[in-house]
Amino acid sequence: MDQKIVTLDEFILHREKLEDATGRLTAVLRDIGIASKIVNREVNKAGLVNILGTEGSSNSSGDTVQKLDIFANERMIHCLSNSGEVAGIVSEEDEKIIILPKVKSKKPEYLVVMDPLDGSSNIDVNVSVGTIFGIYKIKSKAKSEEITDKDFLQKGTDLIASGYVLYGTSTMLVYTTGNGVHGFTLDPSIGEFCLSHPDIKIPTSGNYYSVNQGYYLKFDVEMRRYIDQCSDLNYRLRYIGSMVSDVHRMLFHGGIFLYPNTRKYPQGKLRLLYECKPMAMVVEQAGGKAINCKLERIMDKEPIDIHERTSIVIGSPDMVEEMMEFIKKYSS
Ligand code: AHG
Ligand code: MN
Ligand code: MN
Question: What's the pLDDT tens digit per position in 144-181?
C-alpha cells in the first residue's frame, strides 16, 4: 500500500497541537512555505527568462546584488505581510529593518530575520542556492510600540523557529521549532512540500570538510593546522559557495563547515543574525555544534548590529570539538 503523504501544512498543524503552540506561528511558517515555492519557480526558470545576472546595485554590505536576490527578497516580504503576525523583518538585502503594515486589528507577535537568497554567485551557473530564515517573538514591551533594530538583537537561544530552503536537484525545506529538525521535499507535480526526512540527526563525525581553501594563506594558524589535518586524513573537500547547500550535505553525511576570519573579513564574513544563528539552531537541534573562532557558542551571541558578521565553525559534534582543540592549542 502507498505510504501516506504528509504535507508541510498538515505537519505544522499537527505539531502545533502536540507542542501546544498557537496557530499564529503556524501561519508564519506557512507563509514562508508559500514564498519559497514562488522563489523556487523563479529559480527553476531563471535560465529561460531575463532574470539572471546582476541587478546593478549593491546590498547593505556592498556585495553585488543579483536580480534573483531582489525577487526572492520581495516575495518573502510580500508573503510575510499576509498573516498580520509579523511586525518586521531584517533581510540581508535591506540596510534598514522592514516594518510591515498592520493587518486589521491584529497585534503582530513575531519578527523574522532572513537571507532571501544564499549563494547568489551560483545563480548564473545553475548551481544550488538557498533561503535562510529565523523567527523571534517580539519581547512584550515592544508590542505596543514601533519596533526598532534593538528588538532584533536577541540571542540565538531566543529563536522560536528557524530553517532553510535548498533549491537544489530537488527543493527541500528544512525547519525546526526546537523539537527536532524535519525535512520536506517539494513535489512539483502537486506543488506541495511533503515530509521526506523526519527527525534529522547529524552524524557525530564525518569525512567531509567545507571551507574556501583558496583563502588558506589568509587564515590564522589554528585554522591552517586543522585544514592540514583534514588533508592528511584524506577528508573530502566540498565547497559550493552557498552555506545552505554545504550545511545541508553535512546534516546528512556528517562533516564540518568553516568560514573563519580572514584578512579581508577580520570578524568573519557570514552574518550572525540571519545566516549563522538560524543555521546553528538547525544544526544544534540535529545534534551538531556551532561556534565562532573565539570558541563562543553562536546561539549564545547577542548581536550588537543587525548586519553583524561572525566567524563560524559548524557541523558534526566530534569534528567541531576537535577543531576547538586546535584553536586552544595554536591560537595566540
Ligand atoms: P550570499 O550569497 O547570501 O551573500 O551568501 C554567500 C555566503 C555563503 O553562503 C557562502 O558559504 C559564502 O558566502 C561564500 O563566500 P566566499 O566566496 O568568500 O567563499
Ligand atoms: Mn548568504
Ligand atoms: Mn544572500
Answer: 578 999 999 999 999 999 999 999 999 999 999 999 99
Residue from 109, 79, 73 nearest 91 by CA = 73
User: What is the CA(241)–ligand 1 centre distance, in A?
Assistant: 5
Protein residues whose CB sits closer than 6 Å to any atom of ligand 1: 63, 92, 115, 118-120, 212, 241-243, 269
Ligand nearest to the CA of 91: 3
Helices (H) and strands (E) counted in the chain, each on its own, are 8, 17
CATH topology of domain 8-197: Fructose-1,6-Bisphosphatase; Chain A, domain 1 (3.30.540)
Rounded to whole angstroms, the Cα distance separating 298 from 276 reads 7
The SS3 call for residue 30 is: helix
Annotated catalytic residues are 63, 69, 92-93, 115, 117-118, 275
Model pLDDT for residues 116-148, shown as the tens digit of each residue = 999 988 888 889 999 999 999 998 665 557 899
Domain 208-330 - what CATH class?
alpha beta
Position 50 pLDDT exceeds 70: no
Please check the confidence at residue 51 and state whether its pLDDT lies above 70: no
The pLDDT assigned to 299 comes to: 98
Please name the residue whose Cα sits nearest to atom 6 of ligand 1: 119
Kindly report the protein residue whose alpha carbon is nearest to atom 15 of ligand 1.
241
Taking the C-alpha atoms of residue 299 and residue 154, their distance in angstroms, rounded to an integer, is 10
Q: Which residue of 54, 227, 243, 311 sits with most ligand 1 atoms within 8 Å of its CB, as the best mutation to test the pocket?
A: 243
Domains of the chain, residue spans: 8-197, 208-330
80 phi and psi angles, rounded to 5 deg: -75, -15
Which has the minimum average pLDDT: 106-110, 220-224, 247-251?
Answer: 106-110
Nearest protein Cα to ligand 1, atom 2: 119
